[in-house]
Design a protein that fits this description.
The structure is a homodimer of 161-residue chains. With 161 residues, the first copy, chain A, is mostly helical. The first copy, chain A, has eight helices and two strands; from the N terminus they run H-H-H-H-H-H-E-E-H-H. In chain A, strands 1-2 form a two-stranded antiparallel ribbon. The first copy, chain A, starts with 7 loop residues before the first helix and ends with a helix. The interface between A and B is large, with 52 and 52 residues. Chain B binds a DNA duplex (30 and 30 nucleotides) through residues 58, 74-76, 85-92, 94-95, 107, 110-114.
DNA sequence: TCCATATAGATGCATCTGCATTTAGAATCG
DNA sequence: CGATTCTAAATGCAGATGCATCTATATGGA
């Protein structure tokens, strides 16, 4: 799979401890396909959203968290749920606030913090985006996998905390 | 899984054709975990490379393609293999050329094109990066999956062309 | 041959991300 | 209390990406 594996015999002779760190060929293939599949599918879905004149998926994630929470969230909580860096959340919220999809309000319990809530327009946008997003997931992932979706989810679950 | 599924009964009554486009719950879970797992693992591996003072993974991909090809490649070929946009390849090569890892030369057969080759320094960098990259793959994907790596690769393969 | 069109690659500009720093408010400990 | 330290969030700046456009060369037809 990889040029370095030509050194296997040599390395396992000299550094058996290091060799235990070498990934198996299956692991390397799975890695490559994980990276590639995510990029291809995400790109395709993003392109569908853009073609429909809708905002990028990052916006959907924020809207969905806020809709599901049914209560305003602090940026800090969004940060954790969305796995985004703090400064990144800050500016994503800037843009979404500018678009009128969310609103920031001071947080009573802590003068440093805000709470973020979804506006009616944001709720509408979340639904409009799902009308494109859901079918796109089905077409790009659900359909090709069929009954394989469950097993795939299970395997991927072992990679996540 | 998703708020919109509460509308299932209504929608399947009104718009059976539309409902066939709704993803199954398993598909949505697999989708979410695919996006998330890729982000988490790639982030972790990139962080290890950075901590070792090495360039980002995109550079490794270019170096590996050039090393494996054993012959200079045209930017157009890299574009296809790496699934990158043309302008993106152009600038990635700018940076790598600036770092002395690759070299561009005119392409005899077509005055518009170049060929890109890996320099000795680029070969060395590819090997140094693999020393971090390989074990990182094993630690973040190979170890948690064990024998599951093969099945995961097979399922992901169904998502790719 | 010459012009229209297509293709390889580079570049300008806006957006987005990462990193470091800053600001303002909380918490801790003397 | 008051000074130090810690934390939530914002911001300045550099690096990277997407998008449109531009330049130079190739190609194909009248």
């Amino acid at each position: 799979m990889h040029p370095v594996v030509n050194l296997d015999a040599f390395a396992s002779f000299c550094y058996p401890a290091i060799m235990s760190e070498e990934p198996t060929e299956e692991a390397v293939t799975a890695w490559a396909r994980l990276i590639r599949a995510q990029r291809v599918l995400l790109g395709a879905v993003e392109a569908e959203l853009k073609a429909a004149g809708l905002p990028p998926l990052g916006w959907y994630d924020v809207l969905l968290e806020l809709v599901r929470a049914e209560t305003p969230l602090r940026p800090l909580e969004l940060e954790g749920r969305l796995l985004l860096a703090q400064h990144n959340v800050s500016r994503l919220l800037d843009r979404m606030e500018g678009a009128g999809l969310i609103a920031r309000a001071p947080y009573a319990g802590d003068g440093r913090g805000h709470v973020v809530s979804v506006t009616p327009s944001g709720r509408a946008m979340q639904r409009r985006m799902w009308e494109v997003y859901g079918p796109a997931i089905q077409r790009h992932l659900g359909a090709p996998l069929g009954e394989g979706a469950g097993p795939l989810a299970a395997l991927l679950g072992r990679l996540l905390p």
